[in-house]
């Protein structure tokens, strides 16, 4: 039996605050006060401080001397830097899946894709939590791929990007409602390419969707800058 330690309190706090940042409940530039958070959550300031350091490493907050923690801003430069590396990492994950597995295991990828499609069909008319559900379902496909590839370094690197990429994806889905349908098309193409063992087709689908999403987010940022 593999031992798994429970998530630390600071990690739980980081996830709580991180989710509020991803969903824009805490907006860019908002100050996060240690004392208020510790009071609201009934935890120590030390645990909150550790959580903020975790969020800083995940690029969701910036910590300044005498000002404390502030929700980081999405900028054209930061979005481009994020997507440059994230798209390449996803392509690597896809290649490794196809290199290592065929048959039933790759059929399991399509099973996860069907789960994403079911979530998308269920949330198409539900409202504000639709984006969160779609994002979580999409990461379910990635988690299945992690198990096939069995590369803890690649898995850890991609998971570290999850909060930042979720944040941009949430922005895109909230502003482009047709993006949920486009996500369904992407995952369908992804599953078909995986089952057929076509690495080039898989990488093409990843790059096309990633670049499309990047441009959606950039267009939103440019509109906000000009407003």
Automatic annotation (TrEMBL):
Write down the Pfam families for this protein, in alphabetical order. Answer: GntR
- Keyword Zinc-finger tagged: no
**Classification via CDD domains:** WHTH_GntR (cd07377)
Which SMART domains does the record match to this protein?
Answer: HTH_GNTR
Keyword Thylakoid present in the record's keywords: the answer is: no
The UniProt entry, under InterPro entries, shows: Tscrpt_reg_HTH_GntR, WH-like_DNA-bd_sf, WH_DNA-bd_sf
Keywords, A to Z, come to: DNA-binding, Transcription, Transcription regulation
Please give one Gene Ontology molecular function term for this protein.
Answer: DNA-binding transcription factor activity
> Domain HTH gntR-type, which positions?
7-74
Q: What is this protein called?
A: Transcriptional regulator, GntR family
């Amino acid at each position: 039996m593999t031992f798994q330690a429970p998530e630390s309190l600071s990690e739980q706090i980081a996830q709580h605050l991180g989710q509020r940042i991803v969903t824009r409940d805490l907006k860019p530039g908002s100050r996060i006060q240690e004392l208020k958070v510790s009071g609201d959550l009934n935890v120590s300031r030390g645990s909150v401080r550790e959580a903020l350091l975790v969020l800083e490493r995940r690029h969701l907050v910036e910590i300044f001397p005498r000002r404390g923690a502030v929700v980081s801003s999405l900028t054209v430069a930061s979005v481009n830097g994020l997507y440059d590396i994230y798209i390449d990492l996803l392509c690597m994950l896809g290649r490794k899946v196809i290199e290592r597995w065929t048959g039933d295991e790759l059929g399991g990828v399509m099973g996860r894709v069907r789960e994403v499609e079911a979530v998308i069909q269920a949330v198409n008319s539900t409202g504000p939590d639709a984006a969160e559900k779609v994002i979580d379902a999409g990461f379910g496909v990635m988690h299945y791929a992690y198990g096939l590839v069995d590369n803890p370094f690649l898995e850890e690197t991609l998971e570290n990007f999850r909060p930042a990429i979720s944040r941009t994806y949430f922005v895109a889905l909230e502003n482009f409602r047709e993006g949920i349908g486009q996500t369904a098309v992407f995952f369908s193409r992804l599953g078909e390419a995986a089952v057929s063992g076509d690495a080039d087709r898989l990488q093409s689908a990843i790059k096309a969707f990633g670049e499309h999403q990047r441009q959606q987010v950039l267009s939103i940022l440019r509109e906000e800058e000009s407003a």
